[in-house]
Design a protein that fits this description.
The structure is a homodimer.
Chain A lengths: L1 H10 L6 H12 L4 E2 H7 L5 H13 L3 E4 L7 E4 L13 E6 L5 E8 L6 E2 L2 E13 L1 H17 L1
Parallel strand pairs in A: 4-7
Antiparallel strand pairs in A: 1-3, 2-3, 4-5, 6-7
The complex binds manganese (II) ion (2 copies) and zinc ion (ZN) (2 copies).
One manganese (II) ion binds next to strand 2 and strand 4 of chain B.
Chain B binds a DNA duplex (30 and 30 nucleotides) through helix 2 and helix 4.
Chain lengths: ~150, ~150
DNA sequence: GAGTTTTTTGCAACAGTATTGCATTATAAA
DNA sequence: TTTATAATGCAATACTGTTGCAAAAAACTC
């Protein structure tokens, strides 16, 4: 559905350029959060600098949000419908797979509630990162084990 | 106490070089987590590459641990006594000040407990990042407000 | 649809971050 | 003190992220 991305761009008052449509569709179709390199690899023709600016534009508009995953490389994922310009509502945990490196949104796991004042510090935000082995990698591990067992 | 760092190096079977003593003392004396640039700025003579390798060595030995703070720049802080080679015990939250950029360990705030299996994913670790305004920045803000009020 | 205005894009240049190989130097062991 | 071992600093390289500017594309006006 190419019209999906066009609708989002229109709703946010953004001009419907090829780059924006392509990048936004990639986010819509992607099951996991994407780094700049991921997007760059998907569209070899698009300039890196344009991608940086596109991501910033989308983030400001509440179309995508940053997913902090403990790596030093920011990842981005499509926002929930309730997000808008300068007011993100994506207050959920992110899962980072140590096996394949993929990061996914855990919309059903809210970030923990923390007292506003803690040890004399004003806490404005709490971010939860989960890491371990993702569904897909688990399946691969299991089938590898069963192969090993068969060979023995 | 310069002997403090020497003792730690000896206990971990590391040769007592000038770089290691200096960097380790900096960590011991520092109230907050340090980035590579912070350390580089403290000792202009020491080569960046040596610092990268020193940090990696210390981390592997359980002398320092990485403090994930949501920025894209890893920070490091001295470990709790219980940490050892390849077995870190620093399971606490980190606070990142949005005003001054400093990151501190919150040893008294444990990372949240999360079920090992969540949504079909195996969770091995949970990391909590808190962000807001630190003690020191709060004091500055308050005094700035009182000055403004006096001028009115 | 053609022409005009405005915005977006891609390139150049640059600063910062991170890694590896290797010769030199410092430390530890003999 | 001499020898063996390990750490350091430099060169080279790759990757990440930012800004200014001219060309191209999109939006707007008629
Ligand atoms: Mn998310
Ligand atoms: Mn810590
Ligand atoms: Zn995985
Ligand atoms: Zn602060």
């Amino acid at each position: 559905m190419a019209s999906n991305s066009i609708k989002i761009l229109e709703e946010n008052g953004l001009s419907k350029t090829e780059v924006r449509k392509k990048v936004l569709n990639l986010f819509i179709d992607s099951a996991c959060a994407l780094s700049l390199s991921d997007i760059e690899a998907a569209f070899s023709k698009i300039d890196r600098i344009t991608l940086y600016r596109t991501l910033k534009t989308f983030e400001n508009k509440g179309i995508i949000h940053k997913a902090v995953d403990g790596t030093n490389h920011p990842k981005y994922a499509i926002c929930e419908a309730s997000c808008s310009e300068h007011k993100h509502e994506d207050d959920h945990a992110h899962f980072h797979c140590l096996s394949c490196g993929k990061t996914v949104c855990f919309e059903h796991v809210p970030n923990p509630a923390i007292p506003e004042l803690l040890n004399g510090y004003v806490v404005e935000e709490a971010t939860l990162i989960l890491s371990g082995t993702c569904k897909e990698c688990l399946v691969q591990k299991k089938s590898r084990i069963s192969i090993t067992e068969t060979l023995e």
